[in-house]
Amino acid sequence: MIYISDKNKLDNSYDAIVIGSGISGGWAAMELCKKGLKTLLLERGRDVKHIQDYPTAMLNPWDFKLGFNNTNADMERDSVQGSAYDPATKHFFVSDADHPYIQEKPFNWFRGYQVGGRSLTWGRQCYRLSDLDFEANKKEGIAVDWPIRYKDIAPWYSYAESHIGVSGQKENLSQLPDGEFLTPMELNCIEKHLGDSIRKNDQNRLVTIARVANLTRGWDNRGPCQNRNLCSRGCPFGGYFSSNSSTIPAAMATGNLTLRPFSIVTEILYDEHKKKAKGVRIIDTLTNEVHEFFSKIVFVNASTIATAGLLLNSTSSRFPNGFGNDSDQIGRNLMDHHSAAGASGMHEGYQDMYYKGRRPSGFLIPRFRNLKDNEKLDFKRGYNIQGHGERQEWMDKSYGLTGFGKDFKQQLTTPGPWTVWMAGWGECLPYQDNMVTLDPDLKDKWGQPLLKVDFSFRDNETKMMNDIRDRSAEMLEAAGFKDVGSFNYNRPGGSTIHEMGTARMGTDPKTSVLNKFNQMHEVDNVFITDGSCMTSSASQNPSLTYMALTARACNYAVEQLKNGKI
Amino acid sequence: MNRRSYLKSIAILSGVGAISFSIFKGFELTKPFNINDLSGDRLLIAELVEIIIPETDTPGAKAAMVHDYLINVMINCNSAKQQRKFLSGLEDLKDYSLDHYKKDFLKCSAAEQYAVVEYFSTHTGYSYKILNKIDNKLFGAPFYTKLRQLTVEGFCQSQLGATKALAYDYIPQTFEACIPIKPNQKSWATK
Hints:
The structure holds 2 protein chains of 2 kinds. By secondary structure, chain A is α/β, with parallel strands linked by helices. Chain A is built from 12 helices and 20 strands. Chain A has 2 domains: 2-125 and 241-333 and 438-456 and 499-562, FAD/NAD(P)-binding domain (3-Layer(bba) Sandwich); 171-221 and 338-426 and 458-488, no CATH class. Helices cover 23% and strands 20% of the residues of chain A. In chain A, strands 1, 2, 3, 8, 9, 10, 11 and 20 form an 8-stranded mixed sheet that branches. Chain A has a 6-stranded antiparallel sheet with strand order 7-14-15-16-12-19, with helices on one face. By secondary structure, chain B is mainly α. Chain B has 2 domains: 1-31, no CATH class; 32-165, no CATH class. Helix content of chain B is 60%, strand content 3%. Chain B has helices at residues 3-13, 18-30, 42-52, 66-77, 80-101, 110-122, 129-139, 143-156, 159-165, and one strand at 176-180. In chain B, helix 3 crosses helix 4 (66-77) and helix 4 packs across helix 8. Chain B is globular and about 55 Å long. Classes of the chains: A alpha/beta, B mainly alpha.
């Protein structure tokens, strides 16, 4: 490895450095650039340019010679990622063989090391947290209190939604606040039927269309969504929000952005005299050279597990246990939503109805459990149910068909009965010992310590999953569904790809890493606005919250910088 | 029930269970095989997929080259135990044609070929669901189950299958959530 020490420090100096170009890093880069800061955006993977680097986006099913089956070689090399990708999306996932990590217990760590990160393949669901979520830890004496409340973040939710474009339906629910919505997508016949039945049986429950960052009309020179439902391949129509389609081009347009792919940040550098971060050290994966870059502020957006690893790996005489880690909270409180429990069923009605187009979203049953203090359930917090209705197409229908030949073909190629599948996306409590650490011995091919993930769901999550099964099955049965079956896929942590919590926000530096502006308690020019900042997980898909917190933190950071406070 | 499956059911259903079961499987599982041999049965597989999804007013599986798809997927995307099971099932099918019609499958009449496939389609796996589950997990899906599954996915995702036998909507543009079904409506090819 060559250490580049003769670089002119001036050449390597910026106003701001952003580590990671995924959904929150893209936002940080855009906001800082728009506010006039010369910003270096570091990404450990390759560049992915909007449209031109979406090689599978316009392919037909028959263009994949092995269908959507992964090869044996793929599955051997990518035992984790291979369970999430298929030949149409494989290029947006890392190779497990090249990027190993240690699972103390089974934990799926899905990663996309490229410009845009997992914003290319995300689920696009956008839900606001509410005070039910922000107050829960305090009320129940769990972990630490969030240092913010809904009113602090509400305008930033609006700001984020107005930029990315979210289609959705206002429902006036306190537990799931409405946002700035484009025209909602539409529920199909069976989903409306289910919604009517649920509303009739319990006035606290309803079915609404998913709120998604898919554009129902042109927005910010993107879209509209073409209803192809091939989002994870990258959208040549810009029909959904990603760093690649939106924030990075916007940052680039300011002239203030330097984007540096193939750059693994190995350490954040601490200036003992100024008591600030002075910059970062990286390995250029193309040349194996080590470089240092310097800046006035640093935004860490490497994604929850990697961010924890980077902080733990950034040691100094001031911070022997990790950067800004006096609280010993860095790496702890890892959370991921569970989404493995639910129910499905078949309905005999609406045989004369169908749909056209492939809506890239489903329905949502907003949280209806533990909305009040006196519900006496055997678990804390709650879940929202996500699902979709469809008429059985060839794949699912074929399992129920017998025989072969002409009749079989006839059956196979005509629409089957309506079915609904739904599952609960449930809150996971923060546990101190669900944690990310560095292996003391094992290193990756760049000489960096391997990350070790020790995570399990506990009693509260298990009991909640049981409730999800029962309530889901009940709702389907009450709506006249047949062959209702509830399930729990028992998937390991990480499977929902909502990792969070490893550098939590809080008011007390003794028990938290970040203050209410995502600023490190102990190093005031470092901000962390990816999922690691989350004090609790709530049950809402979290990306929108990361975006809102990022915009808010950027605004604060630049104000502080201009006022000479940092 | 042929001798092999008869032995299998006896072994499993009688209390002797594990031991004789594993001896039987041990034999089947250690026989060396080369999955690339499958290409040698290309014509045979083409007939099988066509019998499962025949040409009607729309093209069948053979015209859609589903046999090539099936061979490719079996070679590249299936575990060794699944490959072994498939090859072994194909040999059983050849044996069955010879035993019953004294001819290679490809030399059999259409009616005879149909009867052979009929036999295998109704003698797949065990009549006890739980045994099927165990067997699929340990040794891969049964031959006919896999044959039909790959025929279905190969056909429905082929250009002819998707665009002629099913309704393929490349760029839908709009989503129409609830519309009256059209006469002779075909399923959407993709979702």
